[in-house]
């Protein structure tokens, strides 16, 4: 079969605006966004804003941001900037990037709120927030059926729930999990509850960590959220287990709680993996080691990074807990500002694998210059300290352009869609010479998933037919995407 590509837009950037003067000790400034015409479900946020202290100067390190529906529904709970903040009132650009607590559905109300979380007897403090730029991005996602995890007892390995993954297809990089918590009996606190995603064995997709948001130093009822980028790809259909456990116990324990209404969503991204390499020797008290990456042929806009590197202290041994990483364009443009590893670091020079995962400060446009920098942030009179950084693996992933391979299945595939043009319905006929689950998905021109049907009972060599009822759809072009265990094929259809 011949092959080609179709690019479908997956992000929306709102018009920039000025939020104005921010005064500490108040609820801050809320700005409703214009959402008319926005369609689809959004999972990723990317926000920047220019800050400067004014009058009785506020510090940018105390400025927080929230995304809500103008009422009680929170898409991104209040938090300080991911990067850019200073312990001063100096001009700076603040960034907030990450995964929303819950999906934002395009067209619904969306409001951004800035506020200053610090005030004292010398306040109020003031600042000016200008040039606010907000981007939200879609991702092709799968939500598992909600369930109750039950009673959690501290001092045990917790509760593990295998998820039903039959029919889940593709590679997933994003997780978005919520769970209702309440302390029971000898009451546990929600601030000690941790979550892990694994394959039911030793393979870890998301290492154990406390909730991203929602936790309290009490046993009061609350909704816990875990959101972010997986340690490694989860391949749809493989085993996937979620584990909750209580990380605190003492002589007064065990402590108990109840975990209910667990909702697990995983989302796909389109990854690009660079060839692995060795960064070499790192010496503290220097600017570190910078390695330009080969970006020829990389296309699309990228938001997600997933980086691993093997560390070992050498000579006057450095500690892995002081190693930092940044992504830039080889100059002043920063895609990921310098930060310590997300996990894997130790307060010693022992061999370990360091991992950095998350959402970039700003989009990286494929083909542009991209450089990774490692450096050791600690030095003292006993230094310099040295270490070796090897086996660096870099993955970047995008949502902004989802590329579908058109007719990429081999010549043994019999896949037809008719009638074209269609009026009220189309039929999808297919036949394969191998055993497979078959997923049929219908997308509009914006890349929004309209319909999805999964055939888990396909019999090798048989001719199967699926009807798609398109009565409620408008007159335009659509794409029918067929997915099997061996590949993807896409066909264009158009209404009469």
What brief labels describe this structure?
globular, Secretion system C-terminal sorting domain-containing protein, Secre_tail, 496 residues, signal, 5-stranded antiparallel beta sheet, mainly beta
Give your account of this protein's structure:
This is Secretion system C-terminal sorting domain-containing protein. It comes from Algibacter agarivorans. It holds the Pfam family Por_Secre_tail. With about 500 residues, the chain is mostly beta strands. Helices cover about 0% and strands about 55% of the residues. It has strands at about 5-10, 10-15, 20-25, 30, 40-55, 65-70, 75-80, 90-105, 110-115, 125-140, 140-145, 150-155, 160, 170-185, 195-200, 205-210, 220-235, 240-245, 255-270, 270-275, 280-285, 290, 300-315, 325-330, 335-340, 350-365, 370-375, 385-400, 400-405, 415-420, 425-430, 440-445, 450-455, 465-470, 475-485, 485-495. The strands form nine sheets. Strands 2, 3, 5, 8 and 10 form a five-stranded antiparallel beta sheet that branches. Strands 11, 12, 14, 17 and 19 form a five-stranded antiparallel beta sheet that branches. Strands 20, 21, 23, 26 and 28 form a five-stranded antiparallel beta sheet that branches. Strand 35 (about 475-485) and strand 36 form a beta hairpin. The radius of gyration is 25 Å and the shape is globular. The chain starts with a strand and ends with a strand. Residues about 1-10 and about 400-410 have low confidence and may be disordered.
Query: Taking all residues together, what is the mean pLDDT?
Result: 88
Distance between the termini: 27 Å
Count up the helices.
0
SS-based structural class? mainly beta
Bin the helical content.
Answer: under 10%
Q: Can you count the beta strands? A: 36
Strand content: over 45%
Shape: globular
Low-pLDDT residue intervals, each spanning 5 or more residues: 1-9, 400-412
Biggest beta-sheet profile: 5 strands, antiparallel
Estimated radius of gyration: 25 Å
